[in-house]
Amino acid sequence: MSVLVMKFGGTSVANLDRIRRAAKRVGVEVAKGHNVIVIVSAMAGRTNELVGWVEETSPLFDAREYDAVVASGENVTAGLMALTLQEMDVPARSWQGWQVPVQTSSSHSAARIEGIPTDNIMAKFAEGMQVAVVAGFQGISPEGRITTLGRGGSDTTAVAFAAAFDAVRCDIYTDVDGVYTTDPRICEKARKLDRIAFEEMLELASLGAKVLQTRSVELAMRYGVRLRVLSSFEEQSDNAGTLVCAEEDIMESNVVAGVAHSRDEAKLTLISVADRPGIAATIFSALSEAGVNVDMIVQNISEEGRTDMTFSCPTNQVARAEQALEKAMADAVLNYRELIADTAVAKISVVGIGMRSHTGVAARMFKALSDEGINIKVITTSEIKISVLVDRKYTELAVQALHDAFELEKAG
Amino acid sequence: MSVLVMKFGGTSVANLDRIRRAAKRVGVEVAKGHNVIVIVSAMAGRTNELVGWVEETSPLFDAREYDAVVASGENVTAGLMALTLQEMDVPARSWQGWQVPVQTSSSHSAARIEGIPTDNIMAKFAEGMQVAVVAGFQGISPEGRITTLGRGGSDTTAVAFAAAFDAVRCDIYTDVDGVYTTDPRICEKARKLDRIAFEEMLELASLGAKVLQTRSVELAMRYGVRLRVLSSFEEQSDNAGTLVCAEEDIMESNVVAGVAHSRDEAKLTLISVADRPGIAATIFSALSEAGVNVDMIVQNISEEGRTDMTFSCPTNQVARAEQALEKAMADAVLNYRELIADTAVAKISVVGIGMRSHTGVAARMFKALSDEGINIKVITTSEIKISVLVDRKYTELAVQALHDAFELEKAG
């Protein structure tokens, strides 16, 4: 018995017509001989409506009740999908999280999946059931309360089921047809990737390519689940979309897989900080306590006991960051001459596992930006990623220049 | 610990404002020292929306999936009600049917409650929880699937909880302020009853006074649950609404408690049926197999081996009844000269436990109708009820005449 997991997001099940279209795709896979586990989200708009009611009722809501209310959206889709499949003469039934059961932690609204017993569903498959439709995004706590995994949790549900059932693949149907070398809206040469490595996808996901939930990619990497991202709005061939897979499953690839960008970045610089051991810890503890998500950090060489410290964070956290640092100054745990905020920057990153074995990627990147007259404000690197901050007005230009420089329009 | 059950129907929880008003009433009872079990329906309109989706998806739907989809409406209200109570600093949590668990039969969409273990909720009450909000209308089958009790099932849920928890009372909040001597829309002298006996309520419910589900009244009678019907849209005193209770709790009462009417009646007469032993069984088996709900039956005295047989049924079943009888004629299991259908009749009934000990009720009823020139077409009687069929155009006149004749505007 080969199990395939197929996940349909909110726009793919937004109304009865779309549920029918999704069910047809499930039918195609059943015809190929798969037993299919379908993970469904709530119909588009439903979750927002339910969340709105909860927040209006109780601004500081009890997360257990929030979960009980919000999880109902997925239950509706699961039942309707099972009925649609039955109408197509495909033996199917729905499962709610607690019926499987999807065992989670008790962290309501942000629960972690801890176990998925396969016996119930496998027994039904053995009896001739061909499709198990499971309400995504939800589970049951050790106390027997309904939990949810947090927004985008249905991707995580899908990957967790694929891991638990040792599925041949986990297909994530969404409103884009795959993962691109960069955002097609700002670079017309953007090319859909046939394959991308987990590590690359993780960097791209956390850099703002909103195709897949970071958590679900991490989980897929840990359990070696072959993830495929594809569109539910187009006819699909067998190798449609983008396969997110282990590095060794990618025969040849470009050194750089993609160029990501994020406009929601601000750069803050502390000028002439009194330097002493532990000064970085002091600064970033203060920021962390204030709830500031610091991304990039750069420290210049210290001279005469003073240094400059630069970091980036989301633009809407700048005020909070300034407040926290001014308080630290007032409390005399920190001493600096000036705090400069630049809220008009963008982060541009090149990502690729090929960087591990190829040198010169950074030089090529900096030259391409320099050729366009784009000044680099901050640089950080990881093993498979180089990110720079530039003036926000250069976002499109920088992305296009890098896409050209690494010849991403050509397949690797 | 005294447990009170309060049930709020769909119009009483139609939006967040109304949920707040309902929660305030719960708060009043909590302040009196009760532990309250609140049974909620889906927000008005929600169940119809969900049913519509199911029927559009699959006209001959799998009732198990229907139940899973439709039950989600009550879950939303239960969570929102618990949150509203928490906002008022009343310790509360929601329970879905499977969490209690409300154990039911496997008759999906028409399940019967078979047991309600009280330990979970009682343990929470003992810990200081003051309100348990339970999603009405739903339960769990022995197979672990979600079941629903059928339309109006939330009343039944409420009474079943009141019986299981030995509640002091079961208050049913609805959009009317009690049970009336007759329909106030057609008789302005109609008077709200302070008390009514279970048996009378049962007759009135089955006669079309849609205040309470027949099933819930039967259950209340069997377990001696004191049921109170009252409006969620008016300020309430301690003895508001109508108490449905055992006969012995009603000190004094009118001979007749109320006058009911139903316009959805048709009269069919088989003229000159060949009479033989078992002929009634033949006719009514044929009708039953065709799904015709026969109500009143009258057979005239047989003459020369032939008789006339009259019965009534809902107007939309007349065609089906005619078809069934014509087929029986064609199959030679039945022989009659003519089948006459009168689809413009109404049923008028007087109901009262006092009839058991008072004679002359029928005579007084027939005289009142005769005085108005209303011809009686069919009569049937039970221990506490007399029903007649009359021309539909006389419905209002007949109700008003009987209300006057039995002086129902005066308290008993």
UniProtKB/TrEMBL annotation, chains A, B:
Substrate binds at T47, E74. Pfam families: AA_kinase, ACT, ACT_9. One of its GO terms (cellular component) is cytosol. ATP binds at K7, F8, G9, G10, T174, D175, Y180, R185, K210, V211. Keywords: Amino-acid biosynthesis, ATP-binding, Kinase, Lysine biosynthesis, Nucleotide-binding, Transferase. Belongs to the aspartokinase family. It comes from the Bacteria. Pathway: Amino-acid biosynthesis; L-methionine biosynthesis via de novo pathway; L-homoserine from L-aspartate: step 1/3; Amino-acid biosynthesis; L-threonine biosynthesis; L-threonine from L-aspartate: step 1/5; Amino-acid biosynthesis; L-lysine biosynthesis via DAP pathway; (S)-tetrahydrodipicolinate from L-aspartate: step 1/4. GO terms for biological process: homoserine biosynthetic process; lysine biosynthetic process via diaminopimelate; threonine biosynthetic process. This is Aspartokinase.
